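Subgroup meeting minutes
Present: P.N., E.W., G.H.
Scribe: E.W.

1. P.N. recapped why we're keeping a running log of single-chain structure predictions: easier to compare across weeks, and new members can see raw inputs and outputs side by side.
2. G.H. added today's entry (249 aa).
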Amino acid sequence: MTEDILGMSQDSMASGVREMATAEWCGPRGHFARILREFAAETVLRHARGGRALACGCGNGAMVAALVRRFPELVVVDSADNGAASVDPRLSRWVEFRHCLIEEFEAERTFDAVILAWVLEHVPDPRSLLRRAQDWLGPGGTIHVIVPNAGSLHRRLGQAMDLLSEVTDLSDADLTIGHRRVYTWPALRADIGSAGLHVLAREGICLKPLPSAQMGEWPSDLLRGLYLAGRELPDLCSEIYAACAPAGR
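Output recorded in log:
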């Protein structure tokens, strides 16, 4: 990313993005899915290093908006036809979008961070994808995984209310959005290890006592409290986060 290409310095770009984030992404109230992705990006950025990142999926654009503030080079792979449209157009000039399945992505360069957020639960062979992701890493690079937590508070509550037989069962909501699995921590650790990776850090992202639809208008300070409290209770959080590196490093 250079001043000739962007017409502005890196510092000016970062300042402008921070202003947009403050005005548009960090209001006092917000949809839970957007806030959760902001928390996910914050978690990733505590552990990621370097300036070049590959992220799979645009989602609702909130995570991309956070990542672009840290990484001068950000490539986003999204299979949705309108994936790039979810990102603020003022940010898209700083993001390289690639429209394809992550399993079909061919990298022309390596990355300091590969972010697989809400991906492994969708793909037929997560271990194969984790092995392939190692080929996209540069020296010292890390893979950052985020998956739904089968043991989350809201799924445990669903089981207690006889809405789920087992916390690992796929609900109608899971099936609607294409989930093939929800992860326990042992299951994720097994996939990571079988792919030739080891875990550098593990966290939970946000306590979630109720389904997303019922938390969509909760105040952002309450949601942030659930995020911070969840760092002490990772097994009960909505999502599992793991930072990984190739074994032997």
